Automatic annotation (TrEMBL):
Name of one Pfam family that matches: Methyltransf_25
GO molecular function: protein-lysine N-methyltransferase activity
Keyword set, alphabetical order: Methyltransferase, S-adenosyl-L-methionine, Transferase
Residue ranges of every copy of the Methyltransferase domain listed in the record: 73-150
PANTHER family: METHYLTRANSFERASE DOMAIN-CONTAINING PROTEIN
Protein name: Methyltransferase domain-containing protein
């Protein structure tokens, strides 16, 4: 059909009509993307509209995350770049990066970084946050929507290093309870620490040669479990997981360990057992 219409173009006296038809033929030809939405100047399909976080809350969010010199902060949906700029300008983060789908916002972020004199460490990228790899961040910030937070939740838990701090303005993460919640000028701010994955059975060898079997169950940062020591089963007491640091008490022995994949090693802390190690079965 399309080729028969296009093939009749050479008839004289009807040039304007046929030129129009030719353009339509080209634009609608399958497999040819002559005019993409961005080239046409159309607005990107944003998952959430732009609303800036007030500066006081920006500051508090970065304080809650305890941003320091060795941090790499990524703001998902970075707007005019205020969180990214504040992270390096006010908290001296090693670097900060903003991702936004709207090119106008990305340009504003770059301009604000330039004005603050931090454009070498505060960078911006145009793109869809759901297609980006942000797993290198040590601090992740966002002001999105609850539905978007829930889409991000498994990505955060599965790809980000234990101990990564996640701060959200306004919206929570469903049944992943925050480690900290504050209300600033009537607005909610939430902090989560990405927990290590510790669920399973572990074989713990003590410094004096005893073998302990640990069984841990986990829901986000909440863990519980029991230990079998020389045939006797006992609950773990004072169990706590914060990032990659795990604490528990077996009988009168206090354990503080660092989780590294399928192993745990003791942390040097006064009053805590030393010389032990544990491996997940
Ligand atoms: C509520 S604003 C937050 C801006 C900034 N983070 C702040 O707190 O001031 C949300 C931002 O997300 C951006 N955005 C929306 N959908 C996005 C997507 N799929 N990928 C990346 N950015 C997106 C919008 O352009 C907007 O700038």
């Amino acid at each position: 059909m399309m080729s028969s219409i296009c093939g009749s173009f050479a008839q004289p006296g009807r040039r304007t009509l046929w030129a129009t038809i030719l353009v339509v033929c080209l634009l609608t030809a399958p497999g040819i993307n002559w005019w993409s939405a961005s080239e046409a100047g159309a607005s990107p399909q944003l998952s959430v509209i732009y609303v800036p976080t007030p500066e006081r809350l920006v500051h508090r969010m970065l304080e809650m995350a305890e941003v320091r010199e060795d941090d790499y902060v990524i703001d998902l949906g970075s707007g005019d770049g205020r969180i990214v700029v504040a992270a390096v300008r006010d908290f001296n983060a090693r670097a900060a990066h903003g991702i936004d789908l709207d090119p106008q916002r990305v340009a504003e972020g770059r301009e604000n970084a330039r004005r603050a004199g931090v454009e070498d460490r505060a960078t911006f990228e145009e793109g869809d946050l759901f297609e980006m790899d942000f797993s290198e961040a040590t601090v992740l910030t966002m002001y999105l929507l609850q539905t978007l937070n829930l889409r991000l939740r498994p990505v955060i838990l599965e790809t980000m290093r234990p101990g990564t701090r996640v701060v959200s303005h306004a919206f929570n993460m469903g049944d992943w309870e925050p480690d900290q919640h504050e209300v600033v000028d009537g607005r909610n701010a939430y902090l989560w620490i990405v927990p290590a994955q510790v669920q399973g059975r572990w074989q713990l060898s003590t410094a004096d040669g005893r073998e302990v079997t640990l069984s841990l169950t986990q829901s986000y940062q909440n863990i519980s479990g029991h230990a079998v020591v020389e045939g006797a089963s006992m609950d773990l007491n004072d169990v706590n997981l914060r990032g990659d640091e795990i604490r528990f008490v077996i009988g009168s022995d206090n354990y503080v360990g660092r989780v590294e994949g399928d192993t745990m090693v003791p942390v040097q802390t006064s009053g805590a057992a030393q010389g032990w190690n544990a491996r997940r079965n």
